[in-house]
Design goal:
5 strands; disordered N terminus; B12-binding domain-containing protein; metal ion binding; disordered C terminus; Rossmann fold; alpha/beta; cobalamin binding; Cobalamin-bd_sf
Length: 280
């Protein structure tokens, strides 16, 4: 599929399942995380402020016609030695917040913001794929959670029990609202996060949790499971978790893969498996 058609397909997936107010909530989520980061920066002078010109250029490329231009900005930051945490918070997070503000001021359309946010999420996943992750062992904690609003907890509870039977240290979070869930995840001693989502009704909640976790725990691998993983593969490609599973055997295999040593290939373009890799 040509690159432009591939991107249009992802944007169509967002607009089909993520409504206008939900997209606004995603932008507000980024703004909240950026505000918290700004408070930290003010208290720690050793953390540099982002370059305003680079940030402006990033915003322009995120809604522009060519996704490669946005990649180039991020690649340049990596080569300059900017940390993963700083790219997430100070550049991608601030860019998402600025896109939301421009939308509120009618300077961007819903489609523009959808394109920008979807590109940010894919960039976050690509960057996380290149992080050096500690090798997980059966003693290392795994965190499983049902997304806010999810009423079907049987599957994720069974997954916890089966993984424990196989020797994994698994903690399960159920019945939490968004803020409480993200707070728990941000402080948990976990090497991997598994999120359960059963259908389109909680798609927006899933997207919001993934965006927040990318900002508070940049290197934490995210795995999505549940019936949603079977019925909404198009939207999952847009939300961009690290992996999607439908069975317990797949889950164990992916836990091993996601938490193994990351490749240290030269920083260039995203993985060939990235939805952005199909270019003319």
């Amino acid at each position: 599929m040509p690159y432009a058609e591939d991107e249009r397909h992802l944007i169509d997936s967002w607009t089909q399942y993520i409504h206008v107010e939900d997209m606004r909530t995603l932008a507000q989520e980024a703004l909240r995380r950026v505000a918290a980061r700004s408070t930290l920066v003010q208290s720690r002078p050793e953390i540099p402020e982002p370059d305003p010109a680079t940030l402006t250029g990033l915003c322009d490329t995120l809604v522009g016609p060519n996704f490669e231009a946005a990649e180039d900005v991020v690649i340049a930051l990596l080569r300059q030695g900017v940390t993963l945490e700083s790219i997430y918070h100070d550049y991608l997070g601030r860019a998402a917040a600025q896109l939301g503000e421009m939308w509120d001021e009618d300077r961007l359309s819903f489609v523009d913001v959808t394109r920008g946010v979807s590109r940010i999420i894919v960039l976050m996943r690509t960057l996380r794929d290149r992080a050096d992750l500690p090798r997980i062992t059966h003693a290392a904690p795994i965190l499983l959670a049902a997304v806010p609003g999810e009423t079907h907890a049987l599957g994720v509870t069974m997954a916890r029990d089966l993984l424990r039977d196989r020797g994994w240290d698994v903690n399960l979070l159920l019945g939490l609202d968004h803020d409480a869930l993200v707070e728990k995840i941000s402080k948990a001693d976990a090497r991997l996060l598994g999120l359960s989502c059963s259908g389109a009704a909680t798609a927006s909640a899933l997207a919001r949790v993934i965006l927040a976790v990318r900002m508070v725990r940049p290197t934490l691998p995210i795995l999505v499971s549940g019936q949603f993983a079977v019925t909404h593969t198009d939207l999952l490609a847009a939300i961009a978790p690290d992996s999607v599973v439908t069975t317990i055997d797949e889950a164990v295999s992916e836990i091993e893969r996601l938490t193994g040593p990351a490749s240290n290939d030269n920083i260039s373009r995203p993985d060939p498996t990235s939805p952005w890799a199909n270019r003319p």
